[in-house]
Amino acid sequence: MSVETEADDHTDPTASPLLHFGAEVRLERERLGISRQELAKRATCSYSLVAKVEAGDRVPPREFAEACDELFPHAGGRFVRLWPLALRYAYPPWFRRYVELEAKATAVRMFHPLLLPGLVQTPEYARAVLRTTRPANLDDLVTARIERQRILARDRPARLWVVLNEGALRNAVADADVMRDQLAHLRRLADTPIHRVQIIEDRSRHHGVASPYGILSFSEGADVLHVDGFPRGYILAEQDDVDAGRDAYDLLCAMAKSPDESAELIDSISKDCYS
Questions:
Q1: Quick one: average pLDDT of 239-262?
Q2: Can you give the pTM of this predicted structure?
Q3: Could you tell me how many helices (H) and strands (E) the chain has, helices first?
């Protein structure tokens, strides 16, 4: 948990966007005489989630904000407008700029040697990956990671191109059910015409790229490069760095199986390892 989060005064609704969102929900709900149970039913969530959101202890999913705007007659879309500020609070400060850029991207190219990247993770897989560091705000981290995937479902979705080492599919971060569902989700993305999924087959040869990284492209403006790392990732915008990232990505694509062959390999690994 960040120092920023630890310093919040939960009695002060102005201390953070998350606390402000929760206070606004509680004030509007109580003003209208609506119970938490009623709001939970409309938002298709649990009573405890409503209580935690109102206390500023949980980041709400977008559907929660939409339900508030529908249930509270004079909201006027206020909660959906506040929601991005509350969601932003779930990301580490160093990662927020990347999320803002990713949300504007028209194309995303990603490589990961060991794991499936966040944009293609199922909630259960994401939870298993994020749990390994024992964070105090695990639920918020999962919500925030899955919310990023909205760029793939908007009216004009971002085009996604993912290159993975075969080992990333065989690296069982959770039980067989979770891994089987995760590979099925990856397979569906591979079958989506605007997206590309390629797998680099394990032939006991190192291809020279050890760090997970991605390239964001936009309708206007230059590409940017994001390198994942520990304890934090970083964004590179210098032309030489971006060119080097693109060149390395082209080589990774050339070494990988074709999209059709990769889809078959996903099926084979799912059957062999997780059936």
A1: 97
A2: 0.86
A3: 13, 6
